[in-house]
Amino acid sequence: MKLYYDLHIHSCLSPCGDNEMTPYNLVNLAKIFGYDIIALTDHNSCKNCLSAIRAGEKIGLTVVPGMELCTCEEIHNICLFPHIDRAMAFSDYISGTLPNIKNREKIFGEQLIMDELDNVLGKEEILLTTASSVSISELDELVERYGGVCYPAHIDRSSYSIISALGDFPPEVEGKCFELTPKAKAEEYLEKYPATKGRMIIRSSDAHYLENMREPEQMIDLPENSAQALIDYLKGRHIK
Ligand SMILES: [Zn+2]
Ligand SMILES: [Zn+2]
Q1: pLDDT tens across 79-110, in order?
Q2: Of 182, 229, 236, nearest to 3 (Cα)?
Q3: What kind of fold does domain 2-234 have according to CATH?
Q4: Which one of the ligands is nearest to 157 CA?
Protein backbone atom coordinates (compact mmCIF):
# COMPACT_ATOMS: atom_id res chain seq x y z
CA MET A 1 0.00 0.00 0.00
CA LYS A 2 1.21 3.48 -0.82
CA LEU A 3 1.51 5.67 2.23
CA TYR A 4 2.22 9.34 2.70
CA TYR A 5 5.09 9.69 5.12
CA ASP A 6 7.11 12.21 7.12
CA LEU A 7 9.88 10.49 9.04
CA HIS A 8 11.69 13.47 10.55
CA ILE A 9 9.67 15.62 12.95
CA HIS A 10 10.72 17.30 16.21
CA SER A 11 8.54 17.88 19.23
CA CYS A 12 8.79 20.31 22.15
CA LEU A 13 11.32 17.90 23.69
CA SER A 14 13.95 19.19 21.27
CA PRO A 15 15.17 22.52 22.67
CA CYS A 16 14.94 23.99 19.16
CA GLY A 17 11.43 22.52 18.71
CA ASP A 18 8.60 24.95 19.36
CA ASN A 19 6.59 24.40 22.54
CA GLU A 20 3.48 24.21 20.33
CA MET A 21 4.94 21.03 18.79
CA THR A 22 3.32 18.85 21.40
CA PRO A 23 2.84 15.18 20.59
CA TYR A 24 -0.92 15.81 20.42
CA ASN A 25 -0.61 18.81 18.10
CA LEU A 26 1.90 17.42 15.67
CA VAL A 27 0.14 14.06 15.37
CA ASN A 28 -3.25 15.63 14.83
CA LEU A 29 -1.92 18.13 12.31
CA ALA A 30 -0.21 15.31 10.41
CA LYS A 31 -3.53 13.47 10.30
CA ILE A 32 -5.36 16.57 9.04
CA PHE A 33 -2.76 16.98 6.31
CA GLY A 34 -3.39 13.39 5.24
CA TYR A 35 -0.22 11.58 6.34
CA ASP A 36 -0.48 7.84 6.88
CA ILE A 37 2.75 7.24 8.78
CA ILE A 38 5.07 9.63 10.59
CA ALA A 39 8.09 9.32 12.87
CA LEU A 40 8.90 11.48 15.86
CA THR A 41 12.65 12.13 15.85
CA ASP A 42 13.75 14.46 18.62
CA HIS A 43 17.44 15.16 19.15
CA ASN A 44 19.09 12.31 21.06
CA SER A 45 15.91 11.27 22.92
CA CYS A 46 12.74 9.23 22.41
CA LYS A 47 10.99 10.47 25.53
CA ASN A 48 7.97 11.97 23.73
CA CYS A 49 7.47 9.00 21.40
CA LEU A 50 5.07 7.04 23.60
CA SER A 51 2.74 10.05 23.86
CA ALA A 52 2.88 10.58 20.12
CA ILE A 53 2.11 6.90 19.48
CA ARG A 54 -0.86 7.09 21.86
CA ALA A 55 -2.13 10.28 20.23
CA GLY A 56 -1.78 8.54 16.86
CA GLU A 57 -3.64 5.45 17.98
CA LYS A 58 -6.65 7.57 18.90
CA ILE A 59 -6.99 8.96 15.39
CA GLY A 60 -5.61 6.12 13.27
CA LEU A 61 -2.18 7.52 12.41
CA THR A 62 0.88 5.28 12.60
CA VAL A 63 3.64 6.93 14.64
CA VAL A 64 7.06 5.31 14.48
CA PRO A 65 9.28 5.90 17.52
CA GLY A 66 12.53 7.49 16.46
CA MET A 67 15.41 9.80 17.25
CA GLU A 68 17.73 12.14 15.41
CA LEU A 69 21.03 11.00 16.83
CA CYS A 70 24.11 13.21 16.66
CA THR A 71 27.28 11.12 16.39
CA CYS A 72 30.65 12.17 17.79
CA GLU A 73 31.54 13.41 14.28
CA GLU A 74 28.52 15.77 14.51
CA ILE A 75 26.57 13.83 11.90
CA HIS A 76 22.81 13.72 12.34
CA ASN A 77 21.21 10.34 11.70
CA ILE A 78 17.58 9.30 11.69
CA CYS A 79 17.07 6.19 13.85
CA LEU A 80 13.71 4.40 13.71
CA PHE A 81 12.45 1.52 15.84
CA PRO A 82 9.71 -1.10 15.51
CA HIS A 83 8.39 -0.66 19.02
CA ILE A 84 8.41 1.90 21.81
CA ASP A 85 10.17 -0.49 24.22
CA ARG A 86 13.13 -0.86 21.87
CA ALA A 87 13.19 2.87 21.21
CA MET A 88 13.23 3.69 24.93
CA ALA A 89 15.99 1.18 25.61
CA PHE A 90 18.02 2.82 22.85
CA SER A 91 17.15 6.27 24.22
CA ASP A 92 18.37 5.25 27.69
CA TYR A 93 21.60 3.95 26.20
CA ILE A 94 22.17 7.15 24.23
CA SER A 95 21.52 9.37 27.25
CA GLY A 96 24.55 7.70 28.84
CA THR A 97 26.68 8.70 25.84
CA LEU A 98 25.83 12.42 26.00
CA PRO A 99 28.04 14.96 27.75
CA ASN A 100 26.70 15.95 31.14
CA ILE A 101 25.75 19.50 30.15
CA LYS A 102 22.62 20.98 31.66
CA ASN A 103 20.14 22.65 29.34
CA ARG A 104 20.00 26.42 29.66
CA GLU A 105 16.40 27.11 28.79
CA LYS A 106 16.81 30.82 28.21
CA ILE A 107 19.45 30.17 25.55
CA PHE A 108 18.44 26.86 23.98
CA GLY A 109 14.72 26.54 24.79
CA GLU A 110 12.74 24.21 27.01
CA GLN A 111 12.84 20.43 26.62
CA LEU A 112 9.29 19.42 27.50
CA ILE A 113 8.19 15.85 28.08
CA MET A 114 4.44 15.67 27.54
CA ASP A 115 1.62 13.18 27.61
CA GLU A 116 -0.77 12.62 24.71
CA LEU A 117 -3.24 15.21 26.04
CA ASP A 118 -0.84 18.17 26.21
CA ASN A 119 -0.03 17.86 29.91
CA VAL A 120 3.60 18.55 30.82
CA LEU A 121 5.06 15.48 32.54
CA GLY A 122 8.48 17.00 33.12
CA LYS A 123 11.53 18.49 31.51
CA GLU A 124 14.70 16.87 30.23
CA GLU A 125 17.55 18.41 32.22
CA ILE A 126 20.49 17.35 30.06
CA LEU A 127 20.99 19.38 26.88
CA LEU A 128 19.88 17.20 23.98
CA THR A 129 21.54 19.04 21.11
CA THR A 130 25.08 17.93 21.89
CA ALA A 131 27.01 15.12 20.19
CA SER A 132 26.90 11.64 21.66
CA SER A 133 30.09 9.60 21.94
CA VAL A 134 28.72 7.08 19.42
CA SER A 135 30.66 7.05 16.14
CA ILE A 136 29.09 6.83 12.70
CA SER A 137 31.08 3.63 12.11
CA GLU A 138 29.39 1.82 15.01
CA LEU A 139 25.91 3.29 14.67
CA ASP A 140 24.37 0.82 12.22
CA GLU A 141 25.28 -2.19 14.35
CA LEU A 142 24.16 -0.43 17.52
CA VAL A 143 20.73 0.47 16.12
CA GLU A 144 20.39 -3.03 14.70
CA ARG A 145 20.75 -4.42 18.23
CA TYR A 146 17.55 -2.58 19.12
CA GLY A 147 15.77 -3.86 16.00
CA GLY A 148 15.90 -0.47 14.32
CA VAL A 149 17.23 1.15 11.19
CA CYS A 150 19.30 4.31 10.79
CA TYR A 151 20.38 6.52 7.93
CA PRO A 152 22.21 9.84 7.50
CA ALA A 153 19.93 12.88 7.82
CA HIS A 154 19.77 15.88 5.45
CA ILE A 155 23.03 15.03 3.66
CA ASP A 156 22.68 18.20 1.54
CA ARG A 157 22.92 20.54 4.55
CA SER A 158 26.08 22.49 5.28
CA SER A 159 26.10 21.51 8.95
CA TYR A 160 25.49 18.32 10.93
CA SER A 161 25.43 16.22 7.76
CA ILE A 162 27.64 13.34 6.74
CA ILE A 163 29.03 15.34 3.81
CA SER A 164 29.67 18.50 5.85
CA ALA A 165 31.42 16.46 8.55
CA LEU A 166 33.40 14.00 6.43
CA GLY A 167 33.58 15.76 3.07
CA ASP A 168 32.13 12.72 1.34
CA PHE A 169 29.52 9.97 1.58
CA PRO A 170 31.83 7.08 2.47
CA PRO A 171 30.96 3.81 0.74
CA GLU A 172 31.44 1.91 4.00
CA VAL A 173 28.41 3.65 5.53
CA GLU A 174 25.94 0.85 6.02
CA GLY A 175 22.30 1.11 5.16
CA LYS A 176 20.14 1.28 2.14
CA CYS A 177 18.95 4.87 2.34
CA PHE A 178 19.74 8.47 3.12
CA GLU A 179 17.76 11.65 3.66
CA LEU A 180 17.68 14.70 1.42
CA THR A 181 15.82 17.89 2.29
CA PRO A 182 12.62 18.29 0.26
CA LYS A 183 14.03 20.72 -2.32
CA ALA A 184 17.51 19.25 -2.82
CA LYS A 185 18.28 17.97 -6.32
CA ALA A 186 18.90 14.23 -6.07
CA GLU A 187 20.89 14.04 -9.35
CA GLU A 188 23.55 16.38 -7.96
CA TYR A 189 24.23 14.15 -5.00
CA LEU A 190 24.03 10.88 -6.91
CA GLU A 191 26.58 12.22 -9.38
CA LYS A 192 28.94 13.86 -6.92
CA TYR A 193 28.89 11.13 -4.26
CA PRO A 194 28.90 7.72 -5.96
CA ALA A 195 28.26 5.85 -2.70
CA THR A 196 24.76 7.32 -2.62
CA LYS A 197 23.83 5.48 -5.82
CA GLY A 198 21.46 2.57 -5.37
CA ARG A 199 20.25 3.82 -2.00
CA MET A 200 16.71 4.97 -1.35
CA ILE A 201 16.17 8.68 -0.92
CA ILE A 202 13.94 9.67 1.97
CA ARG A 203 12.61 13.22 2.10
CA SER A 204 10.99 14.49 5.26
CA SER A 205 10.08 17.87 6.71
CA ASP A 206 12.46 18.13 9.72
CA ALA A 207 9.65 20.30 11.14
CA HIS A 208 10.41 22.13 14.37
CA TYR A 209 7.28 24.32 14.26
CA LEU A 210 3.69 23.48 13.36
CA GLU A 211 3.95 25.89 10.45
CA ASN A 212 6.88 23.87 9.05
CA MET A 213 4.52 20.95 8.54
CA ARG A 214 3.26 20.74 4.99
CA GLU A 215 0.83 18.78 2.86
CA PRO A 216 2.30 15.37 2.10
CA GLU A 217 4.24 14.83 -1.10
CA GLN A 218 6.37 11.75 -0.50
CA MET A 219 4.99 8.22 -0.64
CA ILE A 220 6.40 4.88 0.38
CA ASP A 221 5.05 1.49 -0.69
CA LEU A 222 4.76 -0.89 2.27
CA PRO A 223 3.02 -4.26 2.59
CA GLU A 224 1.19 -2.89 5.63
CA ASN A 225 1.03 0.36 7.59
CA SER A 226 3.24 -0.42 10.57
CA ALA A 227 6.56 0.60 12.09
CA GLN A 228 7.98 -2.88 11.51
CA ALA A 229 6.98 -2.88 7.84
CA LEU A 230 8.62 0.53 7.42
CA ILE A 231 11.84 -0.61 9.07
CA ASP A 232 11.97 -3.79 6.98
CA TYR A 233 11.50 -1.65 3.90
CA LEU A 234 14.22 0.82 4.83
CA LYS A 235 16.60 -2.05 5.55
CA GLY A 236 16.06 -3.16 1.98
CA ARG A 237 14.25 -6.35 2.86
CA HIS A 238 11.72 -5.62 0.12
CA ILE A 239 14.47 -5.83 -2.48
CA LYS A 240 14.60 -9.41 -3.63
ZN1 LIG B 1 19.45 17.52 11.89
ZN1 LIG C 1 15.97 17.33 12.71
Answers
A1: 999 999 999 999 999 999 999 999 999 999 99
A2: 229
A3: TIM Barrel (3.20.20)
A4: 1
